[in-house]
Amino acid sequence: MKLQVTQENLARALSTVARVASTRNTLPILSNVLLKTIDNRLSIAATNLDIAITHQIGSKIQKTGSITVPARLMQDFITSLPDAVLDLELKDNKLSISTDKYHSTINGISSEDFPVMPAIKGGATWKIPAAELKRGLQKVVLAASNDDARPVLTGVYFHDLAGEIFVAATDSYRLAEHKLGKHKGKLNFLVPASAASDLLRIIGDSSDEVTITHDDQQVMFVVGDIILVARLIEGNYPDYRKLIPTKFATVARLARADFINIAKVSSLFARESAGSITINATDKKISINAIASQLGENMAEADAQVKGEGDVTLNSRYLIDALNAFSGEHIDFCFNGKLEPCILRSGDDSGYLHLVMPLRS
Description:
Strands 14-11-12-13-26-25-24-18-22 form a 9-stranded antiparallel β-sheet. It has 3 domains: 2-113, DNA Polymerase III, Chain A, domain 2; 124-238, DNA Polymerase III, subunit A, domain 2 (DNA Polymerase III, Chain A, domain 2, Roll); 244-356, DNA Polymerase III, subunit A, domain 2 (DNA Polymerase III, Chain A, domain 2). Helix 1 (7-17) packs antiparallel against helix 2 and helix 5 packs antiparallel against helix 6. The protein is an alpha+beta fold. The radius of gyration is 25 Å and the shape is elongated. The protein is built from 6 helices and 26 strands.
């Protein structure tokens, strides 16, 4: 293998794919990235067997070939080089990387030992603007669980309902749902939250469309020259819509920035009590109380339009996360007493809602 490629393009591709290279796997080659020439382009790929990412970049191919090299070393080395044209040459599983001022050799492992990168043949395919998918995933992925004891809760749920696509995530303490848009046909699959986070990084500020293809076992996202394939999570997602109230005893509308400010201040005093804060809705204000036996106590309030007085105790981090997921100026904070789920929604973020379960005070 012999080729030329720019440092900028190679560094960008390595930053995209190297993060999925596994350093804790029993297969040492999974800590490597695969470099392979394909049709006058250089393909850079990595996998941890659950997620695989491939990024193709332009290059000047003089001799075809392939090799795998340590992902961390390759990324750190290429990133540290100045912007220049790089000469890559492979001899006896040793990759030579040169510029006019640098020359290094990295020991590789034959690509024959690297897993075959997954592909989906057939399956359902649809497209969505990258910005729209990014907005939806950003709003829900934070609610996915980190606990592998219930695998289905560690994913982002894509599904259709009444001709619309929804994405949702829950860890059983909170729930986020966002409507992506209209869709024809059935849709029902569960993407690992880690894959959704990788996809968000890949999308970045892209203005492209994302092509999504899925079958019963895998899903593939294509964004420009980048392909992410993830193994779907098996299992039935809970019927979370049963949790979402449709009527409320208390509805408070207030400025989102004000709500965030008083929640953050109160959270400083809630550290001793596992983040517990009590929210009171009265005639024209929302107040948040937090008490810490060692630190002291705090009460902060903000002006609000309130229908129906009441109070409820929540986890401050969950509330702040939910408020930060919205982009509109105002928030409707809705609940039914101390024991029922609370709903946050905004007319400025139509199609999105966030549910937070109360704490028993």
